[in-house]
Amino acid sequence: MKKRTRVLALAVSSFLTLSAFSGCASKEPVNTSQGGAASSAASAGAPSKINIWCWDKSDSRAQMHSKFTEETGITVELTAVQSKDMTQKLQTTLASDGDMPDIAWLEATFRGKLLSLNIWEDISKAPYNFDKANVLDYLIPLETSEDGQYVGPECPSVAGLAYKRELAKQYLGTDDPKELEKLIPDWDSVIRVGKDVMAKSQGKVFMFSSLGAVGNMLKGQSTDPFIDGDKLNLKTSMKPILERLIELKKSGMVDVLDFDSPEEGASYAGNEHIFYPCANWSVEFTIKSNDKDGKNRWGFMLPPGGPFPWGGTVMGVPQKAVNKEAAVEYIKYFFGSEKGASLQRDFKGNFSPFKPLYANADFYSAKDEYFAGQDVLQAISQDILPNIKGVRLPSKYDQDINDAYNLVIKTINASKDGNVSADDMISKMEDDLVNKQPAITK
Fold first, then answer.
1. First and final CA of the chain: distance in angstroms?
2. What's domain 161-308+393-436's superfamily in CATH?
3. pLDDT, tens digit, for every residue of 359-370?
């Protein structure tokens, strides 16, 4: 397998909440340089209907698509496919010579495997000519196949740190985000401050709700590949993450809840955990959905160790799609124009990969009552995105590595006072991965 160059990024993008955007006025479109945007599709005789395989068939997406259809004459049909099922469904459909989608969603966790399939159009080439020069720089390698095909853009996603203001003020002495960023700029300071919190609260208040939550941050903040080609690189890339998690486990400042469990969801409304990793989508789908009475309760800040990418979904056009040109016109409209970005923002709360937008600092800006009037959108666009240090490139083994990592997290979490060895767990991960994927070498 070809080696791909790691690309470090300083860029802008991501998305947040629908409620934060309600009442935002749409902007006028700009010249997208996309060779005749989607508004020309119907008049050019392009197919009038496209089918998208995705996992969001919400009313807000349907309303957004209605606006798109009014503008372009292209109607959109959505077929529900869970992200974990996308690879198998595409392969099965190809094998049976079934009808492929015109666009398929490639979610971050499974993207590496999907990008390794030689089934995608390079939409940056003729006859499509999507201008990837207008895509935020750090996203390009995450949207490019192993063979160098530019598969498609995405609504990018990045993360900072959310916190409960009252608990922060009580145990850390301030609820001001800039002061908290000075107090815990790195993970060593988290350990130091966390020990004080445990002492003050007599062990009743935790810095974080789960090791899995912290692990997501640590993984996102590192860029070393877990695998280089078919050779494992866990001793270099994964071991420092596990060592830090073991240190946090020993400190007692991280609760034993399972990551993304109902119990962790319920903790958002409680008073026992101060900090939570917070992607732009977390505000709507995690914080507000779990803490329904949380107005004025939350704050948002740069996390210790810096912001990081978390999530993201590429829009790919299969080679055997029927309505490929109309599909690319859809992509150009929503991911390569200000008008499409405005619809994404206002109906879905999505950020855009369209680079020219960020010359206007007010495009993403709205005060949020859950965050005591803090402008979280502007914090993401002005503080989080420019400070992303880099990305880890996708691999076709990502899901297998993620499964092995999740087992290690459970092992650390279940251990008594962190009495486990990072070396032993790396060795176990290597053995499991080699047994599962014989092409992998240690």
1. 16
2. Periplasmic binding protein-like II (3.40.190.10)
3. 888 999 999 999
